[in-house]
Every structure is written in structure tokens, then in C-alpha cells.
């Protein structure tokens, strides 16, 4: 019973993080970038992340994004005229690692009696 509750807690935490990262990236993209094709913005949909669970407490959160999102986040970008622009658009690393620290804290300290009781009622466990 406890193992089912713990697995559900990990699954919910990963789903929440995937949603939060996606929403934070959407806000950052709209704030920092000008759109040309709209592909980067449209890639941040509900299926931009995937959560999978194994038999033990391990969970896996996979974030899906276009490869050039990572290049936009790096320090040097080449413009159309061939010049190198120094600076970055913090739309990936800052957001992902910031939320990762929050997830670690939540998994370490967030499994309290209130959360356990809420999950038990959702799963209809006595």
C-alpha cells in the first residue's frame, strides 16, 4: 500500500514538473524571442513531456523539444549576416535546472501525511 502511494507521489511530482517547465518555457519564449515560423512555440504543447514509471520508485521525465532550442540557449549565436552575437536566450537550462532543484526538494521533503492521505483518498485506499 505504501509503495503504491509513494509511486503515485513520484509520478504526480514528475507530471507537475513537466507541466511547470513547459509553461515557464512558453512564457520565456514569448518574452525573449521574435517568431518566424512559430515551430518553437507550437512545440510546447501538452505532449511536450512524457513520464514513465518502473516497478520500483524510479520515474523518468522526458522533455521533448526542437534541437535548435538548445542552441538558442548557448552563449554564441550566428546571425544571418555571419556575425557572432554574444549572449543567450535563457529558455532551456535556467528553467530546467531551476525546476530540477525544486523537484529534488519536493521528493525529499514533500512526502508528508497530508499528501499521503490525499493520494490514498484519490486511489481509494483505506
Instruction: Determine the fraction of residues in helical runs and give it as a percent range.
Output: 40-55%
Multimeric state of these chains?
single chain
| SS strand fraction | 5-15%
Distance between the termini: 9 Å
How much is the radius of gyration in Å? 18 Å
Number of domains: 1
Structural class: alpha+beta
Task: Report strand order across the widest sheet.
Answer: 1-2
Number of helices in the DSSP assignment: 5
| Overall mean confidence score, pLDDT | 82
Uncertain spans: none
What characteristic shape results from the CA principal axes?
Answer: elongated
Using DSSP, what is the number of strands? 4
Order of helices and strands: HHEEHEEHH
Largest sheet: 2 strands, antiparallel
Describe the 3D structure.
There is one protein chain. The protein starts with a helix and ends with a helix. It is an alpha+beta fold and 126 residues long. The chain has a two-stranded antiparallel ribbon. The chain has a two-stranded antiparallel sheet with strand order 3-4. The protein is elongated and about 65 Å long. A hairpin with a 5-residue loop joins strand 3 and strand 4. Helix 1 (2-32) packs antiparallel against helix 4 and helix 1 (2-32) crosses helix 5. It contains five helices and four strands; from the N terminus they run ααββαββαα. 55% of the residues lie in helices and 13% in strands. It has one domain (2-123).
Amino acid at each position: 500500500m505504501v509503495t503504491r502511494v509513494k509511486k503515485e507521489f513520484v509520478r504526480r511530482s514528475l507530471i507537475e514538473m513537466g507541466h511547470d517547465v513547459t509553461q515557464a518555457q512558453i512564457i520565456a519564449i514569448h518574452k525573449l524571442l521574435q517568431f518566424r515560423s512559430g515551430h518553437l512555440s507550437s512545440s510546447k504543447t501538452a505532449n511536450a513531456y512524457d513520464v514513465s514509471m518502473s516497478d520500483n520508485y524510479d520515474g523518468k521525465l522526458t522533455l521533448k523539444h526542437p534541437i535548435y532550442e538548445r542552441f538558442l540557449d548557448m552563449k554564441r549565436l550566428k546571425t544571418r549576416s555571419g556575425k557572432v552575437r554574444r549572449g543567450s536566450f535563457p529558455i532551456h537550462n535556467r528553467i530546467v535546472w531551476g525546476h530540477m532543484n525544486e523537484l529534488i526538494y519536493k521528493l525529499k521533503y514533500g512526502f508528508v501525511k497530508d499528501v499521503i492521505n490525499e493520494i490514498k483518498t484519490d486511489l481509494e485506499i483505506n
